[in-house]
Amino acid sequence: MAAGLSLGLPAEITRSRLRDVRGWWRAVHPRAPLSQRLYVVYCVALYGLLGYGLVTSTAKVVLTPAALADWGPALGLVALLLGARWGAVQGPVVYSVADVAQLLGAPLPRRELATRRLVRALVLGAAAGAVIAACAIVGLAGQPGAIGTAAAAGLVAGIALGGVLAVLAGWAVQASARADRALRLATWPLLAAAGALAWAAQTSTLGRDVALSSGPWGWAIAPATGIGQARWLATLAVLAAVTLAAAIVAVRRCGHCPTERHFARAEARNGAIASMMSFDARTARRSLAAVGGGGAAPSRPRSADLGPLRRAFGRAASRSVRRDGARQRPAPDASRPARGPELAVVWRDAVVTLRARARLVQAVVLAGGGTLLSVVDGHPLAVIGGQLATYVAAAQLLEPLRAEIDAPSRVRALLRARIGRVLASHAVVPALVVSAASMTAAAGGAIAGVLEPDHGAVCALVAIAAAPTVTLCAGMSSRRGGRLPLKVLTFATGGDPTGAGIGVIVGWLLLWPTLAAALGAIPVLVASGAPSSALTVTLLCCVAAPAAITGALARELDEA
Question: CA nearest 268: which of 282, 246, 253, 289?
């Protein structure tokens, strides 16, 4: 359904009907009382002050004009990509299921129905960009002469325009199945381009100029990178013209989104909200992923080449038979665990990994890129970001573990083994894949000569040794099943009913990613600064910590 349902009625009649519908809605649903609106203002002011203190204490340490010029274009491209991905699962113009049935199915102008929602989203995108720019200005203002008043105003305007472009990209993907498919094909090339921009900006002055001039992601931060005022004013003018043109086209065509796409997003939104109300993030993610994966061209399933796996496991079985000889084995006892269930788990994970080739490629790219990021730059933020990329790579391969958590009765029925041992066995294949990708990336970096000049080889070895630790942390996070335990929620709300207990929930959610980043980054940072102490720290973070995490991963679910 491309445009509005007018049924041959004049535009004046349909607009009059829309005004009547909106008037009825305002009469039936009055505005919130003044006390409730003041409470919202109070919460925004309170958390704004807390956020200002956090930004003031951290941004001044890590944010400089040089760092903004080096990393800003890459981060801007990633932010624009995230805005487009938001349109793949929801988007700026989202209706409820009832609105899709009643409003979009009525003889009302579709463009007028969507215009207010789209304009509201554009304003919110600009406001979010302005807030991000204000945080950057707070960090830059802590350094003498880092940014002036005119440059600060230009930075706010540029990032606000970037926020508007991100919303427009999300709307383009939401409204068009063709744009949705193009985004899925371009996601990884764009991420690779972001990495290339970051590398080029740190390599030479020419590379930095190319990164800043490569597109809106570089134009938005131009005022704070130290270039001339005339140059960044021209850049902002081009960015404003591009944003204005895209906004005009989007508003004029905002009634052309098919009803089927609105309905799919409305159902996904209902499912996600219901799941989040019960603190079930995994089910919410599945609801949104059903929309994000929609529209793809169906592909014929391909069977993976399992010959090497069959031969390896066949040799293991042959050795077991030769070792036992011709001894007659007793009949299996259903009350006793099967011998070697870990091999069955590893076999199944290997088959799943080989058949899910897209997920495997994503994990390999993330793990390899994270390792290179950790050992090339040497900056603490780069090392932490690299370890978080490795964490995400391991999480990509742990879907079989999450499937066991969803239905643990299958383990007891099919494998007749302790669920804890099965969950620990699910970390073997992801750890091997992540370690192999890290090793390959480190070897490629050594051959290309891009490792840290002082202690790059030691840092690379330590990063490879830390990969299984990061994988085990991702396994512990996946072991939770994406559901917030009732005892954590009770403790968070019972300790402080005013709402400050939200920190407990956030801490619970970020526990394992933070621990993975710490256990992976600390040995690398120590190796880059004091190689003589790297062995002790590596043994603690890469041997003792994994042993403790493996024991926790192998516990029974009833004890968790």
Answer: 289
